[in-house]
Amino acid sequence: MQHRIQPSAQVDPSAEIGEGTGVWELAQIREDAVLGERCIVGRGAYVGAGVRIGSDVKLQNYALVYEPATLADGVFVGPAAVLTNDRSPRAVGLDGSRKSAADWEAVGVDVETGASLGARSVCVAPVRIGRWAMVAAGAVVTRDVPDFALVMGVPARQTGWVGRSGARLEAEGEGLWACPETGERYRESGGTLALIGQESPSSPS
Predict the structure, then answer these.
(1) How far is residue 54 from each of residues 39, 99, 169, measured CA to CA in Å?
(2) What's the pTM value of the predicted model, to 2 decimals?
(3) Shortest CA distance to 177 belongs to which of 193, 165, 164?
(4) Cys-Cys crosslink for 156: which of 135, 151, 177, 197, Cβ 3.0 to 4.6 Å?
(5) Percent of the chain whose predicted confidence (pLDDT) is above 90
(6) What's the pLDDT tens digit per position in 23-41?
């Protein structure tokens, strides 16, 4: 199965597009970007130069992913969401001359496996969005988001936990949480959450 690119999309010849990936109208994928298999790049979406995107990722309409962002497998980026890359943006220098790419250092947003960024959310680089985390629509993320965390607001603050299904977890007491949809159970310790049975050696037990 080949990738599908609409005629009005702009895809640089140096970009790598995985099998089964679809690029819709007016999307732009810059040089040396890499997209995995079975991705969806919505209408008007932008993927910056050298951005790395895994497989099964969805970029909804007009999502803007600026370099050097990285998106792991299964990430969802909602309509008009923005991943920035400049700590202190300015159009001109102190002498009034226009800044060029050489006048600043790009910093990226790293989005881990299965995480979701809601419509019109903004991730202000440099930040990490943890595995299976959920950023609410319209939120502005200015600091790292833990795995499975639900964050919302301006600036974004954690308001709970979500499971791999996206459902908000329910407290069971003694640091245990459960997904009402799947029955999966999670353990919280030290401000982090791990799926029971899949804790890494470095995760709380």
Answers:
(1) 8, 32, 27
(2) 0.93
(3) 193
(4) 151
(5) 89
(6) 999 999 999 999 999 999 9
The amino acid occupying position 201 is P
Token look-up 């803007």 returns: 64
Contact predicate 168/150, CB 8 Å: yes
Q: What is the CA radius of gyration of the chain?
A: 18
4-89+105-158, CATH topology level: UDP N-Acetylglucosamine Acyltransferase; domain 1 (2.160.10)
- Strands of 58-59's sheet, edge to edge? 4-5, 22-23, 40-41, 58-59, 76-77, 116-117, 134-135, 149-152, 157-161
Q: Which amino acid is at 165?
A: S
Amino acid at 141: V
The CA–CA distances, whole Å, from 119 to 15, 25, 79, 136 equal: 26, 19, 5, 8
Q: Where are the domains of the chain?
A: 4-89+105-158, 163-205
